[in-house]
Write a structure and sequence with these properties.
The complex is a heterodimer.
Chain A: E1 19-24, E2 27-32, H1 37-43, E3 69-70, E4 89-91, H2 95-109, H3 126-133, E5 160-162, H4 172-181, E6 186-189, E7 196-199, H5 216-220, E8 226-228, H6 229-234, E9 239-244, E10 253-259, E11 262-268, H7 281-285, E12 300-301, E13 309-311, H8 314-332, E14 337-341, H9 347-361, E15 366-368, H10 375-384, E16 402-406, H11 410-413, H12 415-426, E17 430-434, E18 443-444, E19 447-448, E20 451-453, H13 460-473, H14 479-485, H15 488-499, H16 505-512, H17 516-528, E21 532-536, H18 538-541, H19 546-559, E22 569-572, H20 579-584, E23 591-592, E24 596-597, H21 601-611, H22 623-632, E25 637-641, H23 645-648, H24 652-661, E26 664-669, E27 681-684, E28 693-696, E29 701-705, H25 717-727, H26 737-747, H27 756-762, E30 765-766, E31 810-815, E32 840-843, H28 845-850, E33 858-863, E34 867-874, E35 882-886, E36 914-920, H29 926-938, E37 940-943, E38 946-949
Parallel strand pairs in A: 1-4, 13-37, 14-15, 14-25, 16-17, 16-21, 17-20, 21-22, 25-26, 26-27, 31-35, 32-34
Antiparallel strand pairs in A: 1-2, 3-4, 5-8, 6-7, 9-10, 10-11, 12-13, 12-27, 18-19, 23-24, 28-29, 29-30, 31-36, 32-35, 33-34, 33-36, 37-38
Helix pairs in contact in A: 8-25, 9-25, 9-26, 10-19, 13-16, 13-17, 13-19, 16-17, 22-24
Chain B: H1 3-17, H2 22-36, H3 39-47, H4 55-65
Helix pairs in contact in B: 1-2, 1-4, 2-4
Classes of the chains: A alpha/beta, B mainly alpha.
Chain lengths: 951, 66
């Protein structure tokens, strides 16, 4: 499409079953009851002048431009604040109105710089448009009076500027920050003529304020007062392409606004069903990595990992790679080879990688980065409900009465959904937070959790079983729902188990460290507070009992009847953009696409006939098992697409040992990541801006990803995989990802009704899309569970083997921060480092005091596995005895200290519980120094015999 | 494969099924290993000294072998 502003109806859409009919300038229009006159006029093709109104915000009625005349009504009411009425007759363009509007515009323009031709909003400015719309020809007041001209521009934010001189104080930015984002960082300071927009407290600029740089204010601004620096630098875009964000599992829809192949800005798409027109600092602004100087665009190979890289053409790289793979297969057998699909790549790319491994390599040794995040969700929800996915769409949260957040930090990791959640909480929904840390949601402007249960890390199952104990023993279970929808005998067994006194909150309090009365109150609220919705993240899954915790959550939801309708459900918040999709695509070693076990003969037959191969009926190795097998000598080669296991996976020493033991490590990525230090082949990857395909977000929503520029490396990732497959003699002939998607639909019942063409037409589809659900399923398990009867699973609390003791008295838990994403490979290469330039260790003041540590001091963080150093941040957000850090920076490598303990069912690493000691330090650890030297050596690139560092 | 690690994994699986009662726990542990372990891991656990396993894991491995 060309570049034009997104339609703006002036006030938000109203949901009402009753329709009201009225007449606007002689045109009949029918709209839902409660709709504003402004929106009704826009709905029938009209355009009432406005400045303070926009349809992402509640009406405000301050600019006085949108006045209308209504038959039978006195004066000239503001159309934005006047609701429609049956039979109403509205006039939006009269001589009287024109005079009033011109008068208003004269006042605005008398205090506004007249530099339209050189303004960065020229021809994309609502103030300019309104001046034209009202026919402003002169300003009777002149321009010499008191004004706001000459004020300094705030350039502190790396992505947008605030030019108060261009501000008309419509307060759209303030309201966007309040209503859309929910941060309330902006305000209007002063009164009357002295009113001015201000970020934070006096003396703050945008960067030092509480602003989270979501961009909502920039999007809401009608002038160039708040403007992307990229637009100021590059000018107005000339075309736009709707695509899907490649950061977290929310899956925001954006308009990539372009000049030729230059991305000018990413603007959240109002029609995006996951984000509803909102964005965060990552998706909105942090796309500069796509053209970062560190990006590798040519294939590289080397015989051994102590050699420098040698740039080669694609033909040589692929021949070298295929030769090595074929030789290893011939010598050691198919089970010596494997691959890892990427949760950052498209469904089609993940599907092709697992097809290459199963059909080309000949083994089922394929896994995905979901192994280290949400694999327990797959196991737990499939066992209890029958399918490995969340039950709701994001809109569902607006119908929730009680929101239970466990082991998730949505404001940092899923910020756009967090804003929806916060909106619902401000409307009055109750909040329960179960988390060792006092995450931002616990207390933020206009939001306070009814209950925060700061549990001891590793005791999720004990806490949830104690909640179940309260629900069952106090008669709060929804027995009618359970009898109708679940296996009654299994429920009785479970109820008997949880009712045992040893599962009471009081009995377990010494273990969980959660006050029993607070836990009882939280359980009662969840069971009796109306629609109860559970949202959870990696604080649930990344434990030795991750799968048990997921099942314990499912048990709670079934026991209280909180399944099968809007406002309830069990909702895993997925970490990366396509975690759901990569799992759906058969990326796990034991199952083919659609979660069908590899041992099932009928399923194998289907794929064998379609692919023309014979499949191994035995499950393959998981990532951590691949590394074990490599150290053991039976696993020799790995193809890793879009994943940095050296930085992201636990026990870095062990990962390094596994990689170093292999004969062929192929890294397919944008950058020479940490894993590439141990690679023999580097295949340059493409960004989400450079390819077509689909992502599936946390609500099972399949959305198109569209190519807006040519791949800098020459090929989209799916093409690289195809080239590798063909170099191995597989003869693939896909010419577009839509052909891959058609194959997925052909072979996967839950995708049967999905096609590229349909996605392009409808925007998105939520699987299952098949005969039973031809238009998809926003909410699952409505009339019955996918598995038939819901299954209650007894979840015994089994303490982790990772114990604190005199040498390692503290518990380390790890997580993310808003501005950075996963291992930081993308976000560290953007201006997001302004907010987080290094990983910090959060430590409670008492623990810091005991060790003589002050804020900003260097500390040595040591576990039984390894040690690193980083600066400390002293805060009571963490409980005494608990420390916390992020894993975004390779210089820190938090995973040097994490262990290889893992979830009993899925081997998802136990990132959230590591026994550690923290002591003062005066510099990097020996490991850090050695690793820095290794990285420098490993990244050397030879150009015509001259060796130089890659970065 | 590291036998000690596999024994720990088997014990961990068994510990999470113990609440089902001995018979069920043994069957579920064996089934879990059958469904999710690669052949070389299965072969290794079968080769391990059963005395090093918890009673449920030990019985499950015997069931797998049978």
């Amino acid at each position: 499409m060309g570049y034009e502003p997104q339609p703006d109806f002036g006030t938000p859409e109203v949901r009402s079953e009753k329709t009201v009919t009225l007449t606007v300038d002689g045109r009949d229009v029918a709209v839902p009851e409660g709709t504003s006159v402004m929106r009704a006029a826009a709905s029938c093709g009209g355009s009432i002048p406005k400045l303070c109104a926009t349809d992402s915000l509640e009406s405000f009625g301050s600019c006085r431009l949108c006045l209308v005349e209504i038959d039978g009504m006195r004066g000239t009411p503001a159309s934005c604040t006047t609701p429609v009425a049956e039979g109403m007759v509205v006039h939006t363009q009269t001589e009287r109105l024109a005079k009033l509007r011109r008068g208003v515009m004269e006042l605005y323009i008398s205090d506004h710089p007249l530099d339209c031709l050189t303004c960065s909003a020229n021809n994309d400015c609502e103030l300019q448009d309104m001046a034209a719309a009202v026919g402003l020809r002169d300003v009777r007041y002149g321009y010499d009076g008191e004004n706001h001209l000459g004020q300094a521009v705030d350039l502190s934010n790396p992505y947008f500027l605030f030019a108060p001189v261009k501000c008309i104080t419509c307060s759209r930015c303030v309201r966007a920050c309040d209503e859309v984002q929910g941060t309330l960082a902006l305000t209007v300071e002063g009164r009357g003529f002295g009113s001015a927009i201000s970020a934070g407290q006096a003396g703050d600029d945008f960067l030092s304020s509480e602003c989270v740089s979501c961009g909502a204010c920039v999007q809401a601004c009608p002038t160039s007062a708040l403007m992307e620096k990229s637009v100021k630098q590059l000018g107005k875009p000339e075309r736009s392409v709707v695509t899907t964000c490649a950061y977290c599992g929310v899956g925001c829809t954006f308009r990539a606004e372009m000049k030729g192949e230059q991305l000018v800005r990413m603007v959240p798409w109002k029609d995006g069903k996951a984000n509803r027109g909102h964005s965060c600092v990552k998706g909105r602004f942090a796309w500069g990595y796509a053209n970062h100087q560190d990006r590798i665009t040519k294939p590289m190979i080397r015989e051994t990992i102590d050699q420098p890289w040698r740039e080669v053409d694609w033909e040589e790289a692929l021949a070298f790679t295929a030769g090595r793979l074929n030789a290893i297969k011939a010598q050691h057998g198919a089970r010596a080879l494997g691959g890892i699909t990427s949760s950052r790549c498209t469904n089609e790319e993940a599907y092709l990688v697992q097809k290459l491994v199963r059909g080309g390599f000949g083994s089922n040794n394929v896994d995905t980065c979901a192994r280290v995040c949400h694999s327990p969700t797959g196991y737990g929800l499939k066992t209890t409900f029958g399918t490995s996915a969340g039950t709701q769409d994001f809109d569902s949260v607006m119908d929730a009465d009680v929101i239970l957040v466990i082991g998730a930090n949505p404001t940092d990791a899923h910020p756009v959904f967090a804003s929806r959640m916060k909106r619902r909480l401000r409307q009055g929904a109750k909040l329960i937070v179960i988390d060792p840390r006092r995450i931002d949601l616990v207390r933020s402007p206009h939001i306070a959790a009814a209950h925060h249960l700061p549990l001891q890390p590793g005791t999720n199952v004990a806490v949830l079983t104690a909640m179940a104990h309260v629900i069952v023993t106090e008669g709060l279970a929804d027995e009618a729902f359970i009898r109708e929808r679940c296996d009654w005998d299994e429920y009785r067994d479970w109820a008997q188990f949880v009712a045992d006194e040893r599962h009471s909150p009081e009995f377990l309090e010494p273990v969980t460290k959660v006050p029993a009365d607070e836990l009882r109150a939280a359980a009662r609220l969840y069971a009796t507070g109306g629609n109860g919705a559970i949202y959870y993240g990696l604080g649930v899954t990344e434990h030795s009992q991750g799968s048990s915790t997921v099942m314990a959550i499912a048990n709670l939801a079934m026991a209280t009847g909180n399944i099968g309708r809007p406002g309830v459900g069990v909702n895993p918040l997925r970490g990366q953009n396509n975690v759901q999709g990569s799992c759906d695509m058969g990326s796990f070693p034991h199952e083919l696409s659609g979660y069908r076990h590899i041992s099932d003969q009928a399923t194998r037959d289907l794929f064998e006939q379609d692919w023309g191969v014979t499949l191994d009926p035995e499950p393959g190795l998981r990532i951590n098992n691949m590394l074990d097998a490599a150290v053991d000598g039976s696993f020799k080669a790995i193809y890793i697409q879009g994943e940095d296991i050296l930085q992201s996976d636990p026990n870095t020493h062990h990962v390094a040992a596994g990689l170093a033991a292999m004969e062929c490590v192929i890294v397919h990525d944008l950058f020479l990541n940490e894993t590439a230090n141990y690679a023999h082949v580097f295949l340059p990857g493409s960004t989400f801006l450079e390819k077509d395909g689909t992502f599936t977000n946390a609500e099972r929503r399949i959305q198109p990803v569209r190519k807006v520029m040519e791949p800098a490396n020459g090929y989209a990732d799916w093409e690289v995989t195809q080239e590798l497959a063909n170099a191995m003699g597989l003869g693939w002939t896909y010419s577009h990802p839509k052909e891959v998607l058609a194959e997925i639909a052909r072979l996967t019942p839950t995708f049967a009704g999905v096609s590229w063409e349909r996605l392009c037409e409808e925007g998105s589809l939520q699987w299952p899309v098949n005969e039973q659900y031809p238009d998809g399923a926003p909410v699952m398990h409505v009339d019955g569970f996918v598995r038939g009867k819901g299954k209650f699973v007894v979840t015994e609390y089994v303490p982790t083997d990772e114990k604190t003791g005199p040498r390692f008295p503290l518990l380390l838990t790890t997580g993310r921060i808003l501005s950075q994403y996963n291992v930081g490979a993308q976000t560290r290469r953007t201006a997001n480092v302004a907010w987080h330039e290094e990983d910090l260790l959060e430590i409670h003041p008492a623990d810091a005091d005991n060790r003589g540590l002050a804020d900003g001091d260097w500390a040595r963080l040591a576990s039984r596995t390894g040690e690193t150093t980083l600066r400390v941040k002293v805060t009571d957000r963490v409980a005494p005895g608990v420390v916390y850090t992020t894993f975004h920076h390779p210089a820190t490598q938090a995973n040097v200290v994490t262990t290889d303990y893992s979830d009993w069912a899925t081997n998802c690493p136990e990132y959230k519980v590591t026994a550690v000691q923290v002591m003062p330090s005066n510099g990097p650890s020996e490991w850090q120094e050695d690793y820095a030297a290794l990285s420098a050596r490993s990244r050397r690139i030879s150009h015509d015999g001259q060796v130089e560092p890659a970065e | 494969m590291d036998g000690a690690k596999l024994r720990r994994m088997a014990d961990q699986i068994a510990a999470n099924f113990v609440a089902l009662g001995e018979e069920q726990a043994i069957a579920q542990t064996a089934e879990h290993i059958r469904l999710f372990w690669d052949p070389r891991m299965k072969a290794q656990i079968l080769a391990e000294d059963p005395a090093g396993l918890s009673p449920v894991a030990c019985a499950a491995v015997r069931q797998l072998a049978g």
